[in-house]
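Now for our specimen.

. . .
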Amino acid sequence: MKKPLAFIGCVIIVIAAYFFGYFSVRQSPLVEPAQTENTPSRAATGSAKLYGKFVKISESGVELRLVEWVEGSDNQEQAALETGRCTLDRIEKDECLPNPFFMRETQKTMTLPINQKLTVQVLSPGSNGEIKQDEQQNTIHREISLTELGKMLANVEFTKQTPFIFTTTSGVIAEIREQYIP
């Protein structure tokens, strides 16, 4: 007599679980999923943004060494390991990547002509040598000439460390903007 009751109890549990699963999955979500744009700095169609460091500059063109701008913690950690900048142990202890990005040096260089209406923007120095910022902690750029930029680039350490964003249109550099590195 106990075997049929146990069997009936098991059948009831299985049926109840089936209906519970069916009705819980069948309900539609209350919030519609939305897709957000995750690349606010994407170049407009017909142009491109390149991250790089200066190799050589002249009145007619710029030779630059491209750098890869890596965002996202997983991607940064992978890039840091691949380049030998960090060890797995240091990454696990959060000792390697203090910034929300990682710049991977490349050996790729390219020479591009300069637009006659080129704009050059560099970071503005503050009163104590720090980078000037506004009330919202945004860095403040100032516009300079290509000649002034050439003088700044005479400082070898500045040239080696400072990345720039080169905005091109039809393969010609239209804007050069110094990238802030915290």
